[in-house]
Amino acid sequence: MKKVLLLVAVVSAFSFVSCKKDRVCSCISDTPGATANEVTYIKSKKNNALENCMSTKQTIGTTVVTITCTLK
After folding, report:
1. Letter string b/e over residues 40-51, b meaning 16 or more CB atoms within 10 A of that residue's CB
2. Structural domain boundaries enclosing 33
3. Count of structural domains, the chain
4. How confident is the model at residue 52, as a pLDDT?
5. Considering the domain boundaries, does residue 15 fall inside one?
6. Residue 2 resides in a domain
7. Phi first, then psi: what are they for 11, rounded to 5°?
8. What is the pLDDT of residues 34-71, one digit of tens each?
């Protein structure tokens, strides 16, 4: 019985630990000669970093530039 309680306690402790780590968002535009830009989100959950990564948009003057971002 003690082993079962110990196992339940350990599993419960792991469930409260969040999976936060540094996440890197790599973005590149569709313009010729464009280089990739990277943004690092420090100690971020994957869903939060993905949401921030995908919300990156850019408008140069009246030209809308398509930027493709991926989370590494």
Report:
1. ebeebeeeebbe
2. 20-71
3. 1
4. 87
5. no
6. no
7. -65, -40
8. 888 899 999 999 899 988 888 666 677 777 778 888 89
The rounded distance, in Å, linking the Cα atoms of 55 and 13 is 33
At residue 23, the pLDDT reads 93
Length of the chain: 72
Q: How confident is the model at residue 15 (pLDDT cuts 50, 70, 90)?
A: low
Residues in contact with 24: Cβ distance below 8 Å, sequence separation at least 6, in sequence order? 38, 39, 40, 41, 71, 72
Residue 25 has a CB neighbour count (10 Å cut-off) of 20
Q: Which residue has the tokens 């869903």?
A: 47
Is there a domain that residue 61 lies in?
yes
Residue type, 65: V
In a domain, 9, yes or no: no
β-pairing, 21-29 vs 67-71, is: antiparallel
